[in-house]
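A favour, since you know our structure tokens better than I do. What I am after is a single protein written out in full by you. Could you add the entry underneath, on a fresh line?


***
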Amino acid sequence: MRIVIIGAGFAAMYAALSSARLRDIRGATPKDLEIVLVAPEPTLVVRPRLYEPKPETLTAPLLDVLKAIDVVYVQGRAETVDTKQRAVEVATGDGKRRTLAYDRLVVATGSQLFRPNVPGLAEFGFSVDSLADAIALDRHLTDLAARPATAARDTVVVAGGGFTGIEAATEMPARLRAVLGAAAKPRVIIVDRSEGIAPDMGEGPRPVIEAALRQLGVETRLGVGVAGLDQAGVTLSSGEHIDAATVVWAAGIRAAPLTEQIPAERDKFGRLLVDRDLRVPSVAGVFATGDAARAACDDVGNYALMSCQHATRMGAFAGNNAAAELLGEPTKPYHQKAYVTCLDLGEAGALFTRGWDRKVEMTGTEAKKTKQEINTVWIYPPKAERAAALASADPERVTDL
């Protein structure tokens, strides 16, 4: 029997750990149940941190962890999924193709930045969506020091006033001063079509965010969108043109395109609709998890967000349940009633809220310490020691805050 897991993000990593954990508990061997993880690189990109400088350091190796728990790594990109034949075709790094049959498939392909057809976006826009994107932005910012001192050089426009946009924008003044010198006076502007900053956060946390933006001198243009980019900067839907050498696009994400090959219903973000066990109901043998799945967190109407907090726990449930079906064990319905947000606000600290109503619990330096612990400890892979790695993937305990 074989489980194939596609992806190397948080959901895929925990799906591998959790399926191996149940296999170990049942006393089954890798010959009884082979677990295979397919990804271009055996590396976890710590995507929630890509708004920070030196993004090339924000990765964690997975190969030793996978070896420790007897999960087979196949290097390559999953290009075709045939759900009738139960097979995945992989384009391997050496230019060849390999077909992997599966008994259970876990789609953990994550998400990617939504890039609409905005004139000039492809040519002149930056992002912090992928490691390559973040590295390109970091190099661009470093290169600004060689340019003549102008207002445009020192101006950054961030398109998107959600979590990613706010974290990128509030980190930017310090990043620019590190490049241009302490005397530099960077100008950072957030643009968002919503009438309020951080529209998903609600009214409670918003004053904290607004105060942080004022403290950092970050401007906002709300109720307007980006009409186009050019070499000189950005034009807004209001007609205003902002001279800026740097435009960062942070306006929404969508499930990775591979989900389109699964013949099942998807939501407006491209996520596969799943049941409480994270199965894709209309396709036998297929589970979806993380940013590839729209999953109910509870019985009162809350759904998992496209975040590593939800992806890690969803991955653990999906991996456990895929293995459970093959090993004759009962499945565990996914649930994630505890929900927190910890929003980095650059030199203004951070904001920590709890619950779906986002009650503010910590702000400033206290919240910043928690954010740094999350970013540098909690979200990294476990050590490559078998017992500890498997224990970390108990689906009932993962990200239990």
Residues 203 and 358 are 9 Å apart (CA to CA). The radius of gyration is 22 Å.
